[in-house]
Amino acid sequence: MSQFKTYWDEERETLAPEKRNQIILNRIQEQLHYVYNTLPFYKRIYDEHHFKPEDVKTLEDFTTKVPIITKKMLVEDQQKNPIYGSYAGDFKEEEIARIQGSSGTSGTPTFYQVSQEDWKRAADVHAMAQWCAGIRPDDVVQISFPFSLFFGGWGVIQGAERLGATVFPLGPVESEKQLELMNQIGSTVFSATPSYCMHLINKAKELGFNLKENTIKRLLVGGEAGGSLKGPKNLIANGWNASVHDCASASEMYPFQTNVECEAQQGVHVFNDEVYAEIVEKEDANSPVSMGEKGAIVYTHLWRKSQPMIRFWPGDESYMSEQRCSCGRTYPMLPEGVLGRLDDMIVVRGANIYPSAIENIVRKFSWSGPEYQVIVNKKGVMDEIKVIIEQNHLSIQEKLDPIGMKTEAEYHFKKQLGIRVQIDIHPQGTLPETIFKAKRVVDRRKEIIATK
């Protein structure tokens, strides 16, 4: 029997959904009045849409009546109202705990300001998420995310410290050093992007490390889609001989560890009494979709007062389920986590293709290596898509038939995506290594348009 409790906050995590929904509605109504009466950014947007906080009497009202906000709107507001925008709130310097940021296309960061009260609450939320994932005080948590302007590793370290685990904040050092120190220290939890976890599997083989016999028991992944997709997840879990737990939302939604997979691994729990998540139509954010139907995620801070996000559109796709998990938590779930970014979707010959779907196919092949690349081009008036797949070292040594591998890949891509895909197979090491977040898609159609 474990010496530790099952839940971080049992009453909260196992509350009847009907009672939780009433709490959520009360928090939404309170937040709407707060942002409308206090933050000029929201008052302007709501007045433009002829919306008033008292219009929301149900959760359905919230989805169908309240306008969304986007990253572009936040950036523009900070440019007009530097430094933190007119949605920052009126806080004294001594009331602010953190100033963080994210890079923008212009090179000017978008700044985040977190109050002492909000930062303290975030620590408890992140602890609850990591406890849900199975992390305990006797764990050693090795963090490879950067500790810089970006929230990155700060949320991981904050939650791990709060629950009492030993933190090893190594940051983004060389891969060989990650592996060496992992064994030397005896880390039991490793936190990184799914792409980097996959990269280390192959790096370990090159260096002669046996990942399957190391001390890591759990991988806490985030920063990109893939941690809950069956193909990549199984590959990572088998390569590390450890459980994989997807845990993240968006930087703007700090505390961002409010979507997390528990030890039962039946889906990603959504802590919707902290950050309320909706799934809506991709073309209409005021139209909810049915449970199980894919759509766009919209997030809302229910407690945060410093730069609160109310119906923030991060541009991610997912679907939600109310199926109960055997762990006993009563939160809704994202069965496959975040599927990918809506703006990453590629349209080829009328077919909508997401990079996550391509990755799921690539990771099925026993001969595929760590890297692959998707190239979209135009041949005459027709769109063409090519997938370059690395062949791993082991299958090269086994002298597998290259024609057979190519035929296998072409068959599965045609079957899953519904269109013909050109396949090129190259030896492992041909493509650039992924060290942090993967950039897999090259759309050369945009280059052709730009040169005309």
TrEMBL record:
Gene3D superfamilies: 3.30.300.30, N-terminal domain of ligase-like. Coiled coil: none annotated. Residues 86-226 form the AMP-dependent synthetase/ligase domain. InterPro entries: AMP-bd_C_sf, AMP-dep_Lig_C, AMP-dep_synth/lig_dom, ANL_N_sf. Pfam families: AMP-binding, AMP-binding_C_2. Residues 350-445 form the AMP-dependent ligase C-terminal domain. PANTHER family: BLR5969 PROTEIN. This is AMP-binding protein. The lineage of its organism: Bacteria, Bacillati, Bacillota, Bacilli, Bacillales.
